[in-house]
Backbone:
């Protein structure tokens, strides 16, 4: 039966409680994920109004943004960070909210743990006070970041007031080139459409490239939807999705599983669905990518030269980065490599890096940090013996957290230094005051760590 | 939330495009459990020298020529992180309006939830306004929430504002009260749809 509906329409419409005449809609939220940095003021707001948390069972908490990645078993040294984490523990205890805090076997980056525990499921509405909540759209969920006032709204009512975003679709078809990873695909898309073309939209990713991608890869792609301005990204759930969710800790079981899968199978855009905006790209055009500027749209294939600045903002970006138009990427004096973040800290990311690194040595000039996305990912790294590969090569494996992606803890890149990073943002000062970030895939990051520079030449055909 | 009805003020020009929330308030200042005091670190790394912590003379907030309750910024203001601390730092500093040709979604919502009005104008209007206030810092700008207009030097443009949000801004209401008033409908919705979505940990 065709109703001209997009995947986004189907999931959104299923969550509309009410429509305010000439105004927003009341949207029901299935899962609310919280962390230590954007929740304290929301709890305080609730308390100030004498309100209770309405549906504590639909909230899951973890500590990830400011936590140290060394010595997590010890008290947090930084007083302000320690206070935030303690406040979260106290707030969760008081309100009967499940907390996977430091020391818990499920602790980790919020967008890594919810999928790996089966909390994230197709067809759900999921929010978190973090813009990379778009990650969960990889399962065919509507998932988006919210501000702290909205965190308080969901606490109080399990709902949000929202105007329905428009729909866009990005299709990528064809055969991906060797060494092109999901991160390269999304960096390529953002470099083509720009950092604001998704503003006001939810983006569906379609085409054989995404259909053939693993769930980890799909999460990497949806994660960065916000970097082109889109509130969320989505990929229609399929056998790959069901296979991933099945048997996860909190996944539906038995008869409920069968029922849900039947429903999930209906979650795809109708063939005659109309999108407000469409982009199409060929997989063959995508090469391993790297960013050279101070927004994620300033990306090029690693064998290109730094482009000429098109406006004042780009000039300012090149100045901050200490780069010049026409320069080859392999000339950049990279001294740091960071493999981690909600974009690329899943087991598949570390496996691909380890496959390349095995038997090789890290270059002497490089400091290489590997920060697993969760305790479970860390456990897998050790269970699979990847730790030996990385340790032998001189990489440092740390403990789970957001780490050098936003440098709220001690994991900061020093001023003026270049870091090839698998994270999602290359904004000024993002990885530390004056730090210069070059975004890339885990494979490219591993290559940089071994070769001591961006390996531009081997990619020239 | 403070009421916002009519704002008449000079404006501060900040022409950079794609100003992300990490620039508005860097992550290292997010380690607070209250909403107070973020204005001190608004645009911290542009405003102060990274080494000496002395004000950067060439940054607009340190230039005594420019002041006011209106910030005029380049395209795609507020992109990046969802941190509401960005809106809190702008209001704490004293801004009531931000004008740009484009706002990132999450920032826009956060701003409206804190009585900070994002005014989206055309690129031509923004260019004209930016040049005018840069050259003549004493130019008065008027933003009328009810009429949804912005004007300076007899040049007026309309801006979009959801009618629900307009009522909230003009009366200082916020969404929590409204949502609480919908509890019965929300509970009925939960009953109706339980089979499809409900998942309890």
Residues:
């Amino acid at each position: 039966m065709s109703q001209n509906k997009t995947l986004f329409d189907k999931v959104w419409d299923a969550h509309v409680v009410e429509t305010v005449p000439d105004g927003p809609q009341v949207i029901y939220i299935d899962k609310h994920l919280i962390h230590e940095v954007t929740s304290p003021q929301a709890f305080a707001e609730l308390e100030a109004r004498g309100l209770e948390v309405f549906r504590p069972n639909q909230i899951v908490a973890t500590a990830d943004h400011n936590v140290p990645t060394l010595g997590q078993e010890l008290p947090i040294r930084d007083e302000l960070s320690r206070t935030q984490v303690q406040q979260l523990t106290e707030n969760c205890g008081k309100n009967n909210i499940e907390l996977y805090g430091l020391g818990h076997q499920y602790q980790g980056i919020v967008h890594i743990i919810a999928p790996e525990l089966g909390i994230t499921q197709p067809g759900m509405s999921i929010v978190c006070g973090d813009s990379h909540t778009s990650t969960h759209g990889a399962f065919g969920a509507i998932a988006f970041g919210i501000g702290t006032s909205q965190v308080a709204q969901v606490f109080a009512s399990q709902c949000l007031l929202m105007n329905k975003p428009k729909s866009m679709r990005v299709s990528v078809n064809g055969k991906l080139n060797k060494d092109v990873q999901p991160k390269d695909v999304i960096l390529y898309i953002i470099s083509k459409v720009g950092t604001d073309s998704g503003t006001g939209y939810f983006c569906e990713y379609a085409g054989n490239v995404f259909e053939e991608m693993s769930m980890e890869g799909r999460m990497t792609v949806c994660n960065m939807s916000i970097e082109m301005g889109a509130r969320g990204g989505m990929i229609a759930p399929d056998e790959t999705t069901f296979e991933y969710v099945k048997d996860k800790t909190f996944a539906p079981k038995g008869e409920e599983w069968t029922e849900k899968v039947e429903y999930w199978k209906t979650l795809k855009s109708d063939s005659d669905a109309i999108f407000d905006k469409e982009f199409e790209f060929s997989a063959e055009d995508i090469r391993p990518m790297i960013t050279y500027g101070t927004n994620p749209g300033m990306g090029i294939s690693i064998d290109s030269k730094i482009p000429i600045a098109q406006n004042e903002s780009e000039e300012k970006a090149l100045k901050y980065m200490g780069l010049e138009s026409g320069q080859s990427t392999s000339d950049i004096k990279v001294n740091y490599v960071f493999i981690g973040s909600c974009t690329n800290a899943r087991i598949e990311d570390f496996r691909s890096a380890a496959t390349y690194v095995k038997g090789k040595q890290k270059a002497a000039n490089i400091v290489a940090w590997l920060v697993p996305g969760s305790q479970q990912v860390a456990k897998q790294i050790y269970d699979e013996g990847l730790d030996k590969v990385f340790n032998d090569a001189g990489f440092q494996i740390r403990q789970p957290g957001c780490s050098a992606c936003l440098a709220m803890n001690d994991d900061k890149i020093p001023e003026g230094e270049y870091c090839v990073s698998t994270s999602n943002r290359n904004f000024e000062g993002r990885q530390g005051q004056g730090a210069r970030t070059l975004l890339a895939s885990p494979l490219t990051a591993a290559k940089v760590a071994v070769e001591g520079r961006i390996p531009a030449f081997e990619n020239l055909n | 939330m403070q009421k916002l009805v009519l704002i008449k003020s000079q404006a501060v020009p900040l022409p950079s495009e794609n100003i992300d929330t990490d620039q508005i308030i860097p992550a290292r200042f997010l380690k607070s459990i209250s909403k107070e005091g973020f204005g001190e670190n608004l645009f911290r790394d542009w405003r102060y020298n990274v080494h000496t912590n002395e004000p950067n003379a060439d940054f607009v907030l340190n230039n005594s020529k420019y002041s006011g309750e209106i910030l005029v910024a380049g395209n795609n203001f507020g992109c990046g992180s969802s941190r509401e601390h960005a809106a809190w730092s702008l209001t704490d500093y004293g801004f009531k309006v931000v004008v740009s040709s484009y706002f990132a979604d999450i920032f826009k919502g956060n701003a409206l939830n804190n009585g900070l009005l994002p005014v989206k104008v055309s690129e031509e209007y923004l260019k004209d306004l930016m040049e005018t206030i840069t050259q003549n810092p004493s130019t008065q700008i008027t933003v009328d929430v009810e009429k949804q207009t912005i004007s300076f030097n007899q040049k007026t443009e309309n801006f979009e504002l959801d009618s629900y949000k307009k009522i909230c801004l003009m009366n200082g209401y916020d969404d929590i009260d409204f949502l609480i008033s919908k509890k019965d409908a929300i509970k009925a919705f939960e009953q109706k749809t339980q089979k499809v979505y409900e998942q309890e940990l």
